Amino acid sequence: MMNSEILNVFDEKREEFKPYGITCEVWTPSLMRRPDRHNEIELNYFGEGAITYLFHDKKITIPSKKLALFWGLIPHQIIDFENITSYFVCTIPFSQFLEWKLPTSFVDGVLRGEVLLDGSEAFSPYDEFLLNNWTSEFGKNEGLEVTLLEMRARLLRMAHNSVARKENNHSSIHSTEISQVERIAIYIAQNYAQPIKAAEIGEAVGLHPDYANTIFRKAFGSTLSEHIMKERISHAQRQLAATDTSITEIAFQCGFNSISRFNACFMKMNGCTPREFRRRYL
Question: Can you tell me whether residue 52 is helix, strand or coil?
């Protein structure tokens, strides 16, 4: 199926948040001992078999012959795979993805951390044709422009398929705000375990905190403080599901300065206590 003999594999020593840039490559799956995090939008396609990822606390199996899309800033970790020796991986910079002005509900799903699948296998031969072309032509200057146009067109088709029954408007975030929103998202992802506030975030990215909060909410549908809390609780979910670290230690790892505050926030987001949440995975 694939025309490349060079297979990439996840580097366990890779620095967290290190960018991949824009790529289209053939990978071989491997069990990952830690999650990967990067600020590109990631596309996966398997011609055969399946791969199971751990996203936050959720195990999600991506089947063969369906294009899968997710935001790489969401911690993702391969925990199982079967009947697969290689698969396609494309990474699209966050700013490029937003500049494509795809339908709002589609973009919102990606930014909320959803794994989006193209629901029809009818596109499978077409996707394999495209991906083989992208991997072979990607290094050529004349091939990059065509590849980017084809990528956008394929995602636009995927978006229209997935949001056909929803309002099909386009993202309202202004092009000048995209890089600012990206810097804010990365800063929060890197520092959520610290006692950070809107003023510190604004200062770190060179924006007034009120303006930083406004453009972030326009892109993500949540305030800076809400997003910080989501990052902290998501980290706690991963630790509770995948480790035997004590709940007290997890609370402080996530940036909470009291167990009662941690329990209250966890209950608000999950409808259960951390202890009850962990029991699901025993």
Answer: strand
φ, ψ (nearest 5 deg) of residue 2: -100, 145
What does the pLDDT average to over 105-122? 87
Amino acid identity for residue 59 in this structure: K
In this structure, are residues 72 and 41 in contact, taking their beta carbons and an 8 Å threshold?
yes
Is the distance from CB of 67 to CB of 126 less than 8 angstroms?
Answer: no
Kindly state the helix (H) or strand (E) to which residue 217 belongs, with its residue range. helix 209-220
pLDDT value of position 168:
44
Q: Are 39 and 107 in contact (CB under 8 A)?
A: no
Q: Which helix (H) or strand (E) holds 97?
A: helix 94-99
CA angle 136, 141, 145 (to 5 degrees): 85
**How far, in Å, are 51, 116, 180, 236, 269 from residue 162 at the CA level?**
22, 8, 28, 31, 26
Question: Tens digit of pLDDT for each residue in 189-206?
Answer: 999 999 999 999 999 999
The answer on 243 and 127 residing in a single domain is no
pLDDT at 214 over 80: yes
Q: What is the pTM of this model?
A: 0.83
Q: Which residues of 148-168 are buried (b: 16+ CB within 10 A; e: fewer)?
A: eeebbebbeebbeebbeeeee
**What pLDDT was estimated at residue 282?**
64
Residues facing residue 42 across a β-bridge: 70, 91
Do residues 150 and 181 share a domain?
Answer: no
Q: Which domain holds residue 217?
A: 175-279
**Tally of domains within the chain:** 2
The secondary structure of residue 7, as a DSSP letter, is -
Q: What is the pLDDT of residues 141-194, one digit of tens each?
A: 667 888 999 999 999 999 987 754 444 444 556 667 888 999 999 999 999 999
